[in-house]
Amino acid sequence: MEVKPELLQSLNKNLALVGPSAIRAFDVEVSAIPNIIKLTLGEPDFNVPEHIKQAAIQSIIDDDSHYAASNGTLALRQAAANFLQDRYQVNYDAESEIIVTVGATEAIYATLTTILNPDDKIILPTPIFPLYIAVGLVDGAQPVYINTAATDFILTPDLLKAAIAEHGDAIKAVVLNFPSNPTGVTYSDEQVKALADVLRETSIIVISDEIYSELSYDNDHVSMAKYLPEQTIVLNGVSKSHAMTGYRIGILAGPAKLVQKIAMIHQFTITTASNPAMAAATEALGTEAGRQDTLDMKAAYRQRRDFVYEQMTSLGFQVAKPDGAFYIFAKIPAGYLQDDFEFARDLANKNGLALIPGSSFGPGGEGYVRLSYAAAIETLQEAMSRLTLYMKENKND
Question: 23 or 183, which is more confident?
């Protein structure tokens, strides 16, 4: 069906600044290649644990089919509050300081749309999950990119101070995503505290995306809200920790008066999350069995990380060893195609292995590729065999 051409001229002009997700577009592009191994999307290969599925089923059997409170069931908000206090020593009131969102994605959208006005500036340490860039641009904000490639993908206090000094009061917010998508790098207690000390002297809102917090391997995760609760919106959820990506349940927590404003955008956008999915998330976050599920998955991810890291570094890739999440962000060695999109396409077409080009994640991602190791170890072994063969056969002498 054709659309009346004039209608396309009257849409939100900021949409012209963004395009479809480069990650999704590349994944679709390579999907048609026969026998392709795709390590492209952040999609856990585990099934949802049985006791969590049963909680969703019981919700349906009990005819839990009417609108829940817009901010989510109180049972889930209480489970989330207990989880955040128990795991990260941050305290939130379940009734006034927590919203259940449709995935962390909706939490990102609702938060940015609430706090950003046209021409506000938002600090984005890159490489970064590109949704932040797109939503900020659609909201009319101006991204302030801080390339962290030279500091092992860590936003340092000095880099942050320099950006604040340059852009001043125009900065409305800063995004922190740790453990990071795409790098897997995270922040130590000392590093979180140092950033909080800088931000405390400002009126900048911190959007702390901690969706991978439960997948921290070598040290306990430290929430930004531990040191800067009065300025921080914490995003979390069950998608990555419990392999529940399709259930679409995120958690947003912050100071009550800020959360009250975000709740307006949340309510106007989605009304409320799905009852069976919230029942499942309550089981995931509110029971000892749910905590154990994450530990079991994390042990498997750690094994996969170590295997892929050793394989890729032996092939000459430069990798900041990930401390969390389930990604390897690897610099393409000299002597190979340096355009990351060309490299990734060539690898996919010649050897049937799909990785995401690093440029998809903003400045500092050029010349890198991202690999998701949220796949069975047998799949990863075959993937590394294909990568090894490609590297042997395609070096430019």
Answer: 183
Structure tokens at 179: 């453990």
Query: What does pTM read for this prediction?
Result: 0.95
Q: What values do phi and psi take at 346, rounded to 5? A: -65, -45
Cα–Cα–Cα angle for 16, 124, 261, rounded to 5 degrees: 80
Does domain 5-47+291-391 fall under CATH 3.10.310.40? My reply is: no
Same fold, 5-47+291-391 and 61-289: no
**Of 59, 94, 97, whose CA–CA distance to 75 is shortest?**
94
Q: Extract the tokens encoding 213.
A: 């917090």
**Tokens found for residue 224:** 């930004």
Per-residue pLDDT of 266-284, as tens digits, reads 999 999 999 999 999 999 9
Give how far Cα 266 sits from Cα of 18, 109, 262, 292, Å: 22, 9, 6, 31
Q: Please state, in angstroms and rounded to a whole number, the distance separating the CA atoms of residues 186 and 263.
A: 29
The CATH number fitting domain 61-289, selected from 3.40.605.10, 3.60.15.10, 3.40.50.720, 3.40.640.10: 3.40.640.10
Helix 50-61 and helix 275-286, axial crossing angle in degrees, nearest 10:
140
Q: Half-sphere exposure of 325 toward its Cβ, with a 13 Å CA cutoff?
A: 28
Which among 99, 81, 98, 100 is positioned nearest to 90, based on CA atoms? 81
